[in-house]
Amino acid sequence: MEFRYPVPVTETGWNITDVGTTVAFDWQYDTGRQRMLNLYQKGKDKQWDSIHRIDWDHEVDPTDQNLLPDEVMPIFGSATWERLSRAEKDRARHHYLAWTNSQFLHGEQGALVCSAKIVATVPQLDSKFYAATQTMDEARHVETYARYLNDKLQLTYPIDGSLKALLDQTISDGRWDFTYLGMQVMIEGVALAAFSMIRDFTGDPLGKAINAYVMQDEARHIAFGRLALKDAYAELSEGERAEREEFVVEASYLLRDRFLAREVWETLGYDADELTAYVDQHQMMGEFRKALFSRVVPTVKDIGLWGPKVQAAYQDMGVMHFQDADIDELSDSDDRIAEEMEALLAARIEGRTVPQDGSRAAEIAATMAAGDES
Ligand SMILES: [Fe+2]
Ligand SMILES: [Fe+2]
Q: What's the pTM?
């Protein structure tokens, strides 16, 4: 399906070699931390299957204006935008949405690789258990975004340069906690905020549901990072802490810059320099990019990487006000939204002619009932 890729995948292959790391075994089978084991149990209980939980029969017209309001397009209001015809604006939206979801997809594959790496490198067995459930979660997320892109948007962009650079650093560093810091805290923290934008702004019920369900899992992944790192970072030396704080600062800037979507404007034949400068300065986008840090900032503070350099960077980015956000409350509300969406979907499916034996509606009802018991 090469035609679906504006840049052929044969040109974008990627292998990271020389990953100097230590693979750790833990022979103590009776020392699991209760909070970690509880999270592991939750990870097992809350697995879902996109084949059954998502209404793939729903048709998506990639040029439909309901997919994303014009005002939410990052180039809305630019000179280029004003010149575009209605059809060209709709094409730009299609490409921008495909690009956004493609970054989610590639980020999910990155998370799949990172959580598998954690299984091998983290010293404690209880963390290996949890990372194993996350690995399965991430495989399901890759599967889900890939299907949405392939079947519905029918267009897939390559990985953005900033995201790729951060993934590279995260995976190449041999120290086990850097995988957590780069993936569970930074990349997943920002992803969670980006998913919520699509969940809350798109008029496409399918896009809404996918992002809501994925977010339900991601909240656990961030909790996993917090738990593991809070314990480990309590004992850091001054120098070790400084190295990690530097990484946080660098990663934060890379993640902030990953939303300029240069590749999209180039592919569409627009003036990419003009538009990335516009997106960089545009006020709406400024608010959007700040909101991306709503989950990262309180987490970084919570795990104790809150030295002057980190605070100065967050001051500079205008995101310090997130430092006292209640992460647990945010996760609970993500959970609630996903459950509500599922109930709505089940009602909608029951209301229309259910194919053959009605197994789909029954399946969703059963999943919901299982959710109620926990
Ligand atoms: Fe994920
Ligand atoms: Fe994740």
A: 0.88
